[in-house]
Amino acid sequence: MPKTTDDLFAFLDQLGITHSTVEHPPLFTVEESQGLRGDIPGGHSKNLFVKDKKSRLFLVTAREDAKLDLKTIHTAIGGSGRVSFGSGELLEEVWGVKPGSVTPFGAINDTDGRVTVVLEKALLALEPVNFHPLRNTATTSIAPADLIRFLEATGHPPVVTDLPLAADA
């Protein structure tokens, strides 16, 4: 069984990571999030669950307004060939969340370390950073350094890099 939001918060507490959460209606897209999240300060993200030609899995987390170049992103994340989106079924199996709730906090469910987490450097320059706490009816804020501590504690030391932007960005 995937971990619950309460399990996530208990783990963050165990690590001594300060976090705050705001409840809101379900949000499925960045556009919905921008309109309904209220005045939650800090960096907001888009999270892409992708796989490469060798079926290696990646979670790419970037600023919500970053127009990523998906044709070349594999070069920045260490992928083999172009990436494609992982299916909803695979996302639930490996990351323990449903589509629309994709979050780096899903690392708590990937006990086999199948997913490589990639964080955009520019997102980590914002504070706090905000993500769904395993469900899309809330937003949890933490410090960027604490996000990295959380990921390392789950066995997912992140790749922190600049990500290629689309030519029209």
Number of domains: 1
Helix and strand content put the structural class at: alpha/beta
The SSE string, one letter per element, is HEHEEHEHEHEEHE
- Largest pleated sheet: 8 strands, mixed
Helix content: 25-40%
CATH topology: YbaK protein
Under CATH, the homologous superfamily reads YbaK/aminoacyl-tRNA synthetase-associated domain
Radius of gyration: 15 Å
Oligomer: single chain
Total helical elements? 6
Beta-strand percentage range: 15-25%
Number of strands: 8
Sequence stretches where pLDDT stays below 50 over 5 or more residues: none
Distance between the termini: 40 Å
SSE blueprint:
Layout: H1 5-14, E1 20-23, H2 30-36, E2 43-51, E3 57-63, H3 73-77, E4 84-85, H4 88-95, E5 115-120, H5 121-124, E6 129-131, E7 138-142, H6 144-153, E8 159-161
Parallel strand pairs: 2-6, 3-5, 5-8
Antiparallel strand pairs: 1-7, 2-3, 2-4, 6-7
Structure description:
The protein is built from 6 helices and 8 strands; from the N terminus they run H-E-H-E-E-H-E-H-E-H-E-E-H-E. By secondary structure, the protein is an alpha/beta fold. A hairpin with a 5-residue loop joins strand 2 and strand 3. Strands 1, 2, 3, 4, 5, 6, 7 and 8 form an 8-stranded mixed sheet that branches. The longest helix has 10 residues. The chain has one domain: Alpha-Beta Complex (YbaK protein), CATH 3.90.960. The chain is globular. Helices cover 26% and strands 23% of the residues.
